[in-house]
Write a structure and sequence with these properties.
The protein is an alpha+beta fold. It is built from four helices and five strands. The chain is 41% helix and 25% strand.
Length: 108
């Protein structure tokens, strides 16, 4: 009747999940090379075919915990479809810092 074992397992699991969240939250930018969803490359256009490029990259970044895509690179596959070769995602703070006129928009 040794019961601390389940408590110890729960403590380890909760620490692992908290440390994983804080590590991701501290990251301000990340570049995803050959991003995939369910094992398939991320298509350049969304299913509506009207949103291509930046809107699709932004959606990818938001789904992965970032604010938006700072840069992205396209790749044409053998079957002539277009997918992302890379997407660099940034947090909101990093996106504001990367904006050329960010100093003009700051309030005193």
């Amino acid at each position: 009747m040794f019961t601390p074992r389940p408590v110890l397992i729960a403590a380890v699991l909760s620490f692992a999940s908290v440390s994983g969240i804080s590590a991701h939250a501290e990251s301000t930018a990340r570049t995803y090379f050959n991003p995939q969803v369910h094992g398939k490359p991320v298509a350049l256009c969304m299913s509506d075919r009207a949103s291509c490029g930046k809107p699709t990259a932004d959606a990818w970044c938001r789904d992965n915990g970032f604010a938006e895509a700072l840069v992205f690179e396209r790749l044409r596959t053998v079957d002539k479809s277009q997918v992302f070769r890379q997407i660099k995602c940034v947090t909101r703070e990093q996106a504001v810092a990367a904006t050329p006129d960010a100093s003009n928009r700051a309030t005193p």
